[in-house]
């Protein structure tokens, strides 16, 4: 379809496995926009997320993440579609940069993410009881996601294609 012009970056936020990367990628492809995933940038430069966590802890990961996200959000160039790791919004500098973006919160429930997070080895913060860890983090961060969001998309009973459709309509 026709290319969409964005006036600001379109940034997807939300808890782990909510579909930020997939929905962002599909949306960007459909509208002829560039797509960038913050976790992918981090992994390309610093190695896998589990290896960063084991070598530098969550604190080290957050420092790297804040730096990479700031670089993405302030880079010269056309506005694009960006997906952030679930915890990127914890950083106050990132929160300030998001004020100049169009922020979409993928408001996921456990049922949506459960098939994606069981047996997941790529997300160190879900080690142990993944469902319980996910729920605790999603609930704790939800007020921050809501505060930063210009648009909230609930994921319950929707395919990722349907979410792309809904986002295209609402934008
Ligand atoms: C994290 C989410 C992950 C990744 C890291 C920490 C979090 O990204 O950045 O494992 O704290 O929520 P996804 O949201 O893509 O799973």
UniProtKB/TrEMBL annotation:
Q: GO CC annotations?
A: cytosol
GO molecular function terms listed in the Swiss-Prot or TrEMBL record: ATP binding; magnesium ion binding; shikimate kinase activity
Record-listed Mg(2+) binding positions = 21
Q: Name one Pfam family in it.
A: SKI
Q: In which pathway does it act?
A: Metabolic intermediate biosynthesis; chorismate biosynthesis; chorismate from D-erythrose 4-phosphate and phosphoenolpyruvate: step 5/7
Required cofactor names: Mg(2+)
Residue stretches spanning the membrane: none
Binding residues annotated for substrate, in chain numbering: 39, 62, 86, 141
What does the UniProt keyword field contain?
Amino-acid biosynthesis, Aromatic amino acid biosynthesis, ATP-binding, Cytoplasm, Kinase, Magnesium, Metal-binding, Nucleotide-binding, Transferase
The record's listing under PROSITE patterns reads:
SHIKIMATE_KINASE
Q: What does the entry list as the binding residues for ATP?
A: 17-22, 123
| Entry's localization field | Cytoplasm
Q: What is its EC number?
A: 2.7.1.71
- In its UniProt entry, what is this protein called? Shikimate kinase
Annotated source species = Crystallibacter crystallopoietes
Gene name in the database record: aroK
């Amino acid at each position: 379809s026709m290319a969409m012009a964005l006036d600001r970056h379109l940034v997807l936020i939300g808890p782990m496995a909510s579909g930020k990367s997939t929905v962002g990628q599909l949306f960007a492809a459909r509208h002829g926009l560039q797509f960038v995933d913050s976790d992918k940038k981090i992994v390309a430069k610093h190695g896998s997320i589990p290896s960063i966590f084991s070598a530098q802890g969550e604190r080290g990961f957050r420092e790297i993440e804040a730096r990479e996200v700031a670089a993405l959000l302030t880079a010269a160039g056309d506005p694009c579609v960006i997906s952030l790791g679930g915890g990127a919004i914890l950083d106050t500098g990132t929160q300030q940069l998001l004020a100049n973006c169009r922020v979409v919160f993928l408001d996921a429930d456990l049922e949506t993410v459960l098939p994606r997070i069981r047996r997941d080895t790529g997300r160190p913060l879900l080690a142990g009881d993944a469902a319980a860890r996910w729920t605790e983090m999603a609930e704790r961060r939800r007020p921050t996601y809501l505060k930063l969001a210009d648009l909230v998309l609930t994921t319950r009973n929707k395919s990722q294609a349907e979410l792309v459709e809904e986002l295209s309509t609402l934008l």
